[in-house]
User: Fold this.
Amino acid sequence: MAVFTRTTKNLILKIDEFFDNIDLGLLVFREGVKAYLEKDMETFNRHIQKVELLESNADKLQRSIENEMITHSILPQHKGEVSSLIDVLDEIIDTIKSSLNEFSIELPDIPASLAHNFISITEASVSAGEELIPAARAYFKSPYTVREKLLKVYYFESETDKIARKTTRIIFQEMKELDLAHKAHLRYIIHHIENISDNAQKAADLLSTMAIKIVM
Amino acid sequence: MIILFLVSGLFLGWSLGANDAANVFGSAVGSKMVTFRKAAIIASVFVILGAVIQGSGASDTLGKLGSVNAIGGSFTVALAAGITVYLMTKFALPVSTTQAIVGAIIGWNLFTGNPTDSRALTQIVSTWVSGPLLGAVFAIVLYIILKTIKKNSSIHLVRFESYIRTGLVIAGAFGAYSLGANNIANVVGVFIPAFHLKPLDLGIFTLSSHQQLFLLGSMAIAAGILTYSNRVMEKVGNNIMQLSSEAALVVVLAQALVLFIFSSTGFSSFVERTGLPPVPMVPVSGTQVAIGSIMGIGLYKGAGNINFRILGEIAVGWVLTPLFSGVLTFFSLFFVKNIFGIDTGRKTEGTVDPAIQNIQAVQTDPRISEIMHYLLPGLLIAGMAAVILYYFLERKKKKEFRKSEERFWRNLK
Assistant:
């Protein structure tokens, strides 16, 4: 029985650590984008390294959590759903990593007048992800509160869409001085920042049904 | 020869293990909270303990229904009941061994012209209704309690499930113990008048003649659990309704409580002391109680959760079992008596049955006791060795997996 208690404790710690990784990744992404917009490349590169570390750690934890659930037959009835949730959350940190790498490789030329819009999109998109983490933690500890926590995720996701649409409109309709390739590149970068909140919404949908199932 | 006759009882025990005992852990295995192998080992050990320690209570009521007074009759009754349960199990119908043995005893009564004790019959049949009803009531109450605890405490889901799993193992062990105590009468009850063995001294404790029979019967039950109960476990666990882990615990616990109530003489006398009528010591069907408990939870959650088609199939099995078993016994007795010329029993006249006295006189054979003295400890040692071997094999498998995981991450780096 002692061995089993240790396994349970380990798994709980790993799940918590996984959530911490995603949460930190979101924070680092926000700071990374800000550093890029402020042309502070040293800080930006440090953030990229940090995100890569977090992403690799999250992958390792994901595999370890799934393995433990299978080998010790933990949460047999929720195993599939918990794995899917962890998978979707892992996609968030994957998106964060690839987005920062795109900034680093493609070095998008963001006009100073749009810096504020880019920060707003990043803030809203990251907030959607940040609001998701407490809801995901609540699924394990107080499933009755999951749905109310998810409301903010949906709110920030729609905010991200609105700001992104507005910014894209400014780029294509008001900034006549930019050539089409530049405009398309900016739209592409916006789209990638938006992906974070889209993934958060996907995870929220999943969490929502998972919570109903567990409460019933 | 007498040992050969006993084989039919062991076959019935095997059938009971494959069918009724499956219900104890059916919900736990069906909900995938406990693996089949682990469940089978725990159930086997505790069925044996229950039968040997507390087995005598329920066997008296079955004896009242009809005292089979010839070893040939006991053989046929047990064989017919065993075949009935086996056939039903083969078609994955969770039937009741109690119903099969009751049907078979009534078949014997009809064949030999003995009257069926209507009071004992009513007592037994009434538990076919009260058992599942009590199971349903217990299940609803326990389910509400568990849900309230879950809602009001912020226990991590992983930890909560681990408590549930521990609870399932403990409740399952208790259920298996109660099943052994309650249902062993079905397996070897009809042989009790025919066997009078010398006490078996095992060093720490001594087994009486009855207990030796109970031990042998419960080993047959354990063999049934280990070899053939997997299918019925899946059926009980999944087909009536999809069970959550806490519902699985409630079903196992409710079933264990009901079986315990109907086999504990201590509890019965406690009830009597409070001024209420005593609880009858009757072999209750684990199958019916388990299904009653599952239905209780289903009704609490809304009738839409219950698969009524499967329930109908099971109900058909309940009607068919005593009927089929009774008819099979009647015709089998005819063949055994008229073709093989074996005494299958006679009509009992008066209070003292000379036939029983005759059997007892013949059966106190020291050679049988001798065989038992080697057979029982041998089987016990073999069983224990198998459990220990299984434990070490499982540990080895887990260790190897952990090593391969470590290797994977090392190579990845």
